[in-house]
Amino acid sequence: MTLKTTQNFFLVIIFLASASSLKAQKYGDVKAKYSDKPLLFMENRGQIVDRNGGSHPEVLFSAAGSGTRIWLKATGIDYQFNKKSYRFTGSQADINEIPLSAASQKFSVALQNSNPNPVVITENQSDYIENYYLPHCPQGILGVKSYNKIVFKAVYPKIDWVVYSNGAFMEYDFIVHPGGGSFAN
Predict the structure, then answer these.
(1) Which of 61, 77, 83, 88 is the right S-S partner for 41, CB 3.0 to 4.6 Å?
(2) Other beta carbons less than 10 A from residue 63's beta carbon
(3) What phi, psi does 143 have (nearest 5°)?
(4) Cα–Cα distance between 173 and 167 in angstroms, integer?
(5) Torsion from C-alpha of 42, 124, 73, 56, nearest 10 degrees
(6) Which of 73, 98, 68, 103 is nearest to 86 (CA)?
(7) What H or E segment, with its residue span, contains residue 28?
(8) What sequence ranges are listed for the domain DUF7948 (predicted)?
């Protein structure tokens, strides 16, 4: 190898190394940007279906973020926690986030003996909307609204259930009005 060939070889190596780290940095910036987004509750207008295409009208709102999916129903919440493992090879495949393995856990929290038809009030509507074009709705479900707070009025006598986002996290409260809270049966 001549000196000029050696210099060119090292220049190419330095260029590739810097381009690779630049790619990783940009990807990391994008991932960080979207992991900080607030949790939003999307109304269900028919876009929520299971693997077999079956609709789920009992799901009133859904939310997703940081490997978690949440489905709000009048009588409780379904949670699904997803974890994916990736391998780093420095190849183009890393950009596409091809998982090496994936694990999922789902559980439900039911409001026992609650009102199955509470009045639902949405609050703090976000500017963010989604449009869905799915096999079961090829014409599209357009302008699906998102909210930061959902109130389920009178899930129990004189008790409201308030579900809201606190940044990227979901929280909920039970508001007990005067005369509420007696569960002696």
Answers:
(1) 61
(2) 21
(3) 70, 40
(4) 16
(5) -20
(6) 98
(7) helix 3-35
(8) 41-180
Query: Cβ distance 153 to 121 under 8 Å?
Result: yes
What tens digit of pLDDT does each residue of 2-57 get? 555 555 555 455 555 555 444 444 444 544 554 567 899 999 998 998 888 888 99
Q: Do 125 and 145 contact (CB within 8 A), yes or no? A: yes
Asked if residue 16 lies in contact with residue 8, where contact means CB atoms within 8 angstroms, the answer is no
- Going by C-alpha positions, the residue among 68, 45, 61, 81 that lies closest to residue 163 is 61
CA max distance for the chain: 92
How many C-beta atoms surround the C-beta of residue 127 within 10 A?
6
Residue with tokens 């900080």: 36
Task: List residues bridging with 41 in a β-sheet.
Answer: 147
From start to end of 41-98, where are the E strands?
A: 41-43, 59-65, 68-73, 76-86
